[in-house]
Amino acid sequence: MRFILTAALAALVGTAVHAQPLPKTQLKIVGGLSNLAPYTDFEKPFWTNTVPALSGGQITADIKGFNEMGLKGPEMLRLMSQGVVEFGTATLSYFASDDPINEAVDLAGLTTDAKTQRQVVAAFEPVYEKLYGGANGVKLLGLSPYPAQVLFCNADMKGLADLKGKKVRTSSRTQAELIEALGGTSVTMAFGEVVPAMQNKVVDCAITGSMSGYSAKWYEVSTHLVALPINWNPQIHAVNQKAWNRLDPKVQAFLKTNIDKMLDAMWDGAAAQTQLGFDCNSGAAACPQPVKGKMVLVQPSEADRALLKKTMQDTVLPKWAARCSAQCVSDFNATIGKSLGLTARK
Question: Which of 88, 149, 201, 328 has the lowest tally of Cβ within 10 angstroms?
Answer without folding.
Answer: 201
